[in-house]
Structures are given as structure tokens and as C-alpha cells.
Amino acid sequence: MANIYEQDAERCEYLCVHDSVVKKVLDEMPDEEKLFDLAELFKIFGDSTRVKILYVLFEAELCVCDISTLLGATQTAVSHQLRILKSSKLVKSRKDGKNVFYSLADSHVTGIINLGMEHINE
Amino acid sequence: MANIYEQDAERCEYLCVHDSVVKKVLDEMPDEEKLFDLAELFKIFGDSTRVKILYVLFEAELCVCDISTLLGATQTAVSHQLRILKSSKLVKSRKDGKNVFYSLADSHVTGIINLGMEHINE
DNA sequence: ATAACATGTGAACAGATATTCATATGTTAA
DNA sequence: TTAACATATGAATATCTGTTCACATGTTAT
Fold it and tell me: CA at B14, C1' at D9: how many angstroms apart?
């Protein structure tokens, strides 16, 4: 970036709030990478198919076939989404013969979804 | 949809799990609309700019100009995102002369973000 | 060995979305 | 009133993403 003045040209030149507030905000702020990862995590929850998958796994571990049947989605679509959920460590899998059973990876999943539901139900 | 057999052609014909489990899963499952809304809510959190905005609002209410300065983003981009955050009832606004001050709308916001952070920090 | 089955995966396509640009609206100070 | 400022908004664009399709992999039963 060539020039800070050019870069900041669109913004106001001074802050409305007090310096102490600015300092506190910047102190509490996690670094860029953490914030990116956090957004990436929520992006995972931000899809109907994935939320449904997580919901059906609340009660029991299920194989890919059962999940797609319960959701009314194709096996392929579910498989793609399970891959994403697994790489984000939200679900884990266990192979048993031809089947692969998926289950929730940790308790944060239910916590996050339940809080989200609380916000919806208002 | 023409035919349920055609529709379900790709999936297995029977469920691996017991009927009692299927019944429980379907009982606990919120309806389609709720699940859609839930995914829409998390979609809001699934963007770096919006997560950053929510974070800077943890400490204090801020005007658009301050937010964009603190984030290093353009006023326009921030304004667009604030509109989305407001329509999802995650932030509220208060007008004061030329400025518009934004603040978090309710406690669910911090709860959801903190749970997300817990998951990241593992 | 071969057929039937369950799952995984890469490419392609369509739809969604975040940013930028240009401009409009509304407010304060001169 | 006019200039400067803060914010909002619509259109355009480029990027991202979820599904589908075709097919590969791996497992079980005959």
C-alpha cells in the first residue's frame, strides 16, 4: 500500500470516541488470524444442509445413507458436507464394514446451535 | 416431484438404525423454516468483517466512521455490513447529529461468539 | 470372481455474496 | 445558502460455494 493518507482518504481523520476506549477495544481484539478462523467456523453453521446434519446427529450416530434419507438430500451432497464438517472438527467418523457412522465431535456444537436457536425464538 | 421411488433412487432402501431412533430424531428436529432461519443467522457470523464489527462493539458503542477506522475497512463496506447486522437484530443504532452509533442488540451475540472462540482455541 | 452396495471425490455449473464505485441523503458549521 | 462531513444505497463485478453428475474406491455376499 503506497500511502497511508491515500489509504485512509475515505475515513474521518479523528476518532469520535476517547482514546481510552480505542485502546481497550484494540487490546481485547483477537488477532486477524483468529478472527478469520472464527468467521470460517460460523460459515460452517451457515448452511441449511449442514445444520440439519448436525441436528440429526444430536440423538445418535448415523451412517451417511441414513442421514441423507432423513434429510431428503442426495448421498453425494451429504457426503460433501460431512467432509467439510469433519475437517472443521465438528463431527467425527467411525467405519464399520460398508458403512461410515458419523457423530458430533464435541459439546460446543450443541451449545452454539442452542444459543442460535434462542436468538431465533424471540 | 414425479415419483418417490425415482426421488429416492440414490439412497439405500432401508435405514440402518432402529425405528425408535429415527422417530426420536424426527421428533426433536425443528421444522424446515426454523432450520433455515438458524442457518441464515450463522451465515451472518460467517464473515470476517462482520465478526470484527461485532468484536469492536463488545467494549463500547461506536459510530460508523470509528468502526471503519478501527477495522481498516472502507466506510461503504462497513455500512453495508451494519445494515445486514441490523436487519438480523444483532446490532442496534442510535442517531446523534451527523453520526450514527451502533451497539450490540442482545447478549446472545457475545455468547455465540465466545462459544465459537472456545472451539477455535483447542 | 463378480455383483450389489455404501461412500468418497473431482469437475462443472448456477446461485449467492462482499467489495468497490458513484452518488444520494441528511446534518452541521461558516 | 453553501461547503464540508457522516452515512446510506444501488449497480456492477469478481469471488466463493453448494449441488449435481460421472465415476472411483472399498466392502460384503453369492
Answer: 53
pLDDT: is A18 or B4 the higher one? A18
H or E stretch covering B55 = helix B48-56
Helices (H), chain A: 4-7, 19-28, 32-45, 48-56, 64-71, 75-87, 108-120
By residue count, chain B amounts to 122
Contact list in A for residue B36 (CB cut-off 8 A) is 48
Cβ of residue A77 closer than 8 Å to a chain B Cβ: no
Kindly list the domain boundaries of chain B, sorted by start residue.
Answer: 4-30, 38-121
The per-residue pLDDT for range A12-30, each reduced to its tens digit, is 666 777 777 788 888 889 9
- The torsion angle over the Cα atoms of residues A111, A43, B27 and A77, rounded to 10 degrees, is -140
CATH class of B38-121: mainly alpha
C1' of C16 to CA of A20 (Å)? 40
Question: CB–CB of A116 and B55 under 8 A?
Answer: no
pTM value > 0.85: yes
Question: How far lies B88's CA from each of A14, A18, A66, in Å?
Answer: 30, 29, 33
